[in-house]
Amino acid sequence: MSYTYKYPRPALTVDAMVFRKNAEGWQVLLIKRKNEPFKDKWALPGGFVDMNETLEEAVVRELQEETGLHEIPLKQYHAFSDPNRDPRGRTVSVVFYAFVEGKTNVKGSDDAAEAQWHNLNQLPGLAFDHQQIIRKAIDDLNL
Asked: Among this protein's residues, is 114 annotated catalytic?
């Protein structure tokens, strides 16, 4: 059975905040976007949820596709829904987080030109609302 709705619906995305601590303090994993919008800007790894997957499956898939990381114990953090957060249209993002230890090698792939660890106290300009997302997490997670 197929349904149609007269009300527009937002797109659903997921983002992953992966943190690690080194001698200089806390770091977060970011990817450099290969495509518009925000081409060449840094962002959290993430993307659109496919119709046949859960939020948890989507964030695991996106993290692995864009950074090579897998088997990371991600936990759901918060949903972000500012109507203007994405210039492509109305999106809601469910953000997940994880902490990893030691030297964790990452490599940008899929639609990520690069993947790198960045110190939380020296973040580059970020795409979408990812600066606000990370700042909220710093406060909420006591980083």
From this structure: yes
